[in-house]
Amino acid sequence: MFLRPKVSSPVELELASLFRELKHNAVDSKEYATILDHIVTLHGLQKDEETAGVNKNTLVLVAGNLLGIFMIIRHEHVNVVTSRAISLLTTPK
Known about the structure:
Elements: H1 10-23, H2 30-50, H3 56-78, H4 83-88
Helix pairs in contact: 1-2
């Protein structure tokens, strides 16, 4: 129902201005080639900016750790951990 306006990044804004400037130059001019080079460079930056999300492997690792913690807490809740059993646990290095 309520849509947030999309906030454009500085790279997107610069790409839009370069495309507008590209329309005003002839295809065989030096300026056209220069602008195209800048567009290719900025497009590469934009791709790098988009892929900066959370890695799926990281999410799986976090979910596995949370599941392990939940299993330990559940086991401690159901079964009492004695002082002898605690000494058998391995500590992370």
